[in-house]
Amino acid sequence: MDSLRNMIVQDPHYFLLLPSTKQAVLVEKLVQRLDMYTGLYTEEEFRSLGVMATFVVDEIFLQLDRSFFVDGLEFLRGFCYNTNKRALVAAMLQEPKTFGPVQDWTSETLNQVDRFLFFLPKETIQLIPAGLMSLERIERLYLSQKQWERGEIGSLCGQKPSELFDKQQFVLQYFLGFLSVGRSTFTGLIPTCESLHVTQPVAWSIDSLRNMPPAAFQRCLELIGQDPFFSAFQLSVLLTKTKEVYGLPSSFTPSVISQLGRIATQLSVEELASLRLSDIQSISAMGAINMWTSRQLKTIFSTVMNSTRKTPSQLDSSSIVALGHIVCGIEAPVMRTLNAVEFSKAVLWLGRLRLSCSEEQLQVMIGLLSNRLTFGPVSSWGSEVFIEIGAIAAGLPDMSMSALVRVQIEGISPLAISLIPAGKFAVVFNQEQISMFTYEQAIAVTDAQRSALSPLQETALSMVLNPWENKPVDFRGRSLGVAVHPCPIFYLPNVLILLLLLR
User: Fold this and answer.
1) Is residue 34 classed as helix, strand or coil in its secondary structure?
2) Looking at the predicted structure, is the pLDDT value of residue 85 above 80?
3) How does residue 158 score in pLDDT terms, banded at 50, 70 and 90?
4) DSSP SS3 for 271
5) Less CB within 10 Å around the terminal CB: N or C of the chain?
C-alpha cells in the first residue's frame, strides 16, 4: 500500500486519468490503512497523499488543519476540487479562524484567496467590498484560473468547462456594473481585444461587445467566434455586428469565414449558399462546427461542391477531413458515390467527431469501409480497425454488431457506444458481450440505452461498472467474477487497483 501511494504521489498522471469511481475506491483504501477517520486532518497526512489529498471523503476533508489551510493556501490552490469540495473550501474561507466574513476582506486577503474566490456562492461574492474588485484584479483572477487549468494537475482534473464559467461571468459583470438596473453602457465598459483574451468574450455583456470599435472587433473575431457559451440570440447579435464590419456574407473573404466559428450558425440558408467555400481553410472551419441543422449541412455541402466545382466522387481524403461535420450533409445515395479508398484515409479524423449523421448515413459509411479495397468485410476486422473508425462503428448493421467477438468489442470507442440507438443497443449486445466491455465503454452507456436492457444485460453492465461487487451470474454456464485482462504497462495503475480490491 505504501509503495502504491508513493508511486501515485511521484507520478499522479495515471491516477488523475482514472474514472472517478476508481479514484474514490483507491483513496478510501489508502485512508483506511492510514487510519485517518478520526482526529485532525494534518498537514503531514495531506502532503503524504499528494494529489489524492483532496479526494478523501468530505468528513475527513472538513477536519483539515485550519492553520495549514491559511498558511498553505497557495499550495492548496494547485489541487483538484469537485463540486462538494469547492463548497467546503468556500465555507472554510469565511470561518472566524481563517479569513472571516467576506465583508471584512482586504486586498491582501483577496491576493491570498486568489482563484478560490470562484468557489464562493454568488450571494456571498456580492458582499465583497466593490472597491477591491477592479477590472485589473478580475483579470488577474481569470489568469490564475486559466494557468491552473492548463497546468500539469488542472489539465487532468476532469472538470467541465461550464462548472465555473457561470461564477466567473457573474464576478466580471457584477463588479463592472453590467447587472445594475438602469445603468447604461459607456465607453469605459467596452472591452479591449486584450481584455477579451485575458477573460472570455461571453463574460462581457452582449451590448459591450456590440459597441466595440470595428478595428478591435476585427482583431478579436476568431476569439469571439470560438467561445462555446454564447446563446443563439447572442450569436445573432454578433453576426449583425460582423455584417456591419465586413459587409454581406457573399463578400466574406476566406479569412473572415475561417474566423466566424459559431457565429456562422446564425447565417440563413440563403446566406450560406452565397458563401465562397473553395479553399481548405474556410471549409475546415465550417466543418469543425457541430451546431448545424440538417438543412444547413445540406446547403453547406452543396456550396462546397459549387465553389470547388467538384463532384462528390472527386473528393480526396484531405477534402473529406476538411468537411468534418459537413459529411452529414451528404445524402445517403450521394455518399455511396464517394471514393471508398479516400474515405478510409479520412476516417481516422471523422471517427473522433460526434457526428449528427442519420443511421442510414452511418451505414453507408460502413459500406465504404467494408469495401474490398479498404478494410474488407466487417467479420475480418480486428480491434485496430474499430479503433481507427471510432464513432462510425455505431453504424454497423444489426447482424454484424450482434456477431462481434471480444477482440472486436475491445476496439469500439466509448463515443461509438454512446451513439448506438437505445433499441438497437439492447437487441445487438447480449449479456455476454456487455460483460466484455471496458469500464470506459460501460460508463459511456446512456440512460436511454440502459433503460432498454433486460435484467440480465443490466447485471452484466453493473459488473463492469462495479467489479468489486460480488454478483455471480451464469453466462453460458460460467460463473463470472472479476476478470483480469492482459494489458500493456501504461495501464499498470488499473491493475494495481484491481489487485487491491481483490485482497
Assistant:
1) helix
2) yes
3) confident
4) helix
5) C
SS3 (DSSP) at 260: helix
Q: Across the strands, what pairs with 473? A: 480
Q: Check residue 223 and report its DSSP letter.
A: H
Cα(118)–Cα(425) distance, integer angstroms: 41
Task: Give the 3-state secondary structure of residue 59.
Answer: helix
Q: CA 240 → CA 222, 249, 263, 286, 444, distances in Å?
A: 15, 11, 10, 19, 39
CA angle 41, 45, 48 (to 5 degrees): 155
DSSP 3-state of 11: coil
State how far the alpha carbon of 99 is from the alpha carbons of 62, 64, 69, 111, 175, in Å. Answer: 16, 15, 11, 12, 21
Helix (H) or strand (E) holding 256: helix 254-260
Query: Rounded to an integer, what distance in angstroms lies between the CA atom of residue 295 and that of residue 75?
Result: 52
Q: Report how far residue 323's alpha carbon sits from residue 317's, in angstroms, rounded to the nearest whole number.
A: 10
* pLDDT at 469 (0 to 100): 60
**69 neighbors 92 (Cβ within 8 angstroms):** yes
- For residues 496 and 503, what is the distance between their CA atoms, to the nearest angstrom? 11
Helix (H, G, I), strand (E, B) or coil at 311: coil
The mean pLDDT of the chain is: 89
Q: What pLDDT digit, counting tens, does each position of 247-259 carry?
A: 999 999 999 999 9
> From CA 82, how far away is CA 102, in angstroms rounded?
22
> How far is Cα of residue 21 from the mean position of the Cα atoms in its chain?
18
Cβ-proximal residues to 96 (8 Å cutoff; 6+ apart), any chain: none
Task: Specify the pTM.
Answer: 0.83
Q: Strand, helix or coil at 478?
A: strand
